[in-house]
Amino acid sequence: MKNLSSSSQRWANCHIGITGANGSLGRALAEALEERGAVITGICRSIPKIDDSRNSLRKWVAWKCGEEIALKEVLDHLDILIINHGINHHDSQTSKSLNESLEVNALSAWRIMEMFEEISLKGAENSRPKEIWINTSEAEIQPALSPTYEISKRLIGQIISLRWSNLTKENKKKYKIRKLILGPFKSKLNPIGLMSPKFVAEQILRLASIDLNLIIVTPNPITYLLMPIIELSRFIYSKALRKEPEDGG
């Protein structure tokens, strides 16, 4: 095991769940976090075989979209939840592709996020709030040569921005949201990705360790410029429209 830096120690004995843990980035994140002493629960459709090199020492939970309520007991025991599952039909633009993309990439992620937020906000205040990290991809703001993928990622991205804008100071003491804006990395969804999953995972943890809520990892410099501006504009827009509760209401 590598020597752990002081920043890496924050993950030691931390219980972390990862959806899509059987995918390229999910495995890379699990391995990187386990190296830092985290206790990982892999959440995915198919559990690796016992003798599979991907099995490692982490716990596995089988799950599929539409059955999010079955994850409640798992979520109750997590310090951090990383929503990383996804689907990409590439150039397919059929109704079936759109429905599946919306369900997997956006709606199921939102339902899990809602459950975890409720669990987090019911907990007692402590020095370390629960965290949720959501992988939206830079397809949220730029073309990805996959219209249905882009639409679903924009939806979940805007939902996250909305939740960010509406967290009160008290809520933030119990619950932290991090958004992962990732460029093209090599995986089954994108076999021609430019970055390796291991590199992306290490960069995510490096940026999370300095407590960034907006984590961007991409070779595209335009994303680093546009994404903070877009998030700021969404924040201002949401705050301008938000109605504060009336006194005594």
Descriptive overview:
By secondary structure, the protein is α/β, with parallel strands linked by helices. The chain has a single domain, classed as NAD(P)-binding Rossmann-like Domain (Rossmann fold, 3-Layer(aba) Sandwich), CATH 3.40.50.720. 41% of the residues lie in helices and 15% in strands. The chain has a 7-stranded parallel β-sheet, with helices on both faces. Strand 1, helix 1 and strand 2 form a beta-alpha-beta unit. The longest helix is centred in the middle third of the chain and has 28 residues. 37% of the residues are buried. The model has no long low-confidence stretch (mean pLDDT 86).
List the helices and strands and how they pair.
Layout: E1 15-19, H1 24-35, E2 39-44, E3 59-62, H2 72-76, E4 80-83, H3 95-122, E5 130-135, H4 147-166, H5 169-172, E6 175-182, H6 197-209, E7 214-217, H7 221-241
Overview in brief:
This protein has 249 residues and is α/β, with parallel strands linked by helices. The protein is built from seven helices and seven strands, in the order E-H-E-E-H-E-H-E-H-H-E-H-E-H.
Strand line-up across the major sheet: 3-2-1-4-5-6-7
Helical percentage:
40-55%
Report the biggest beta sheet as strand number plus sense, adding barrel if it closes: 7 strands, parallel
User: What's the total number of strands?
Assistant: 7
Shape: globular
Could you spell the SSE succession in H and E letters? EHEEHEHEHHEHEH
Estimate nothing, just give the exact number of structural domains: 1
- Do you know the CATH topology? Rossmann fold
- Terminus-to-terminus distance: 56 Å
User: Counting H and I runs of at least 4 residues, what is the number of helices?
Assistant: 7
Output mean pLDDT. 86
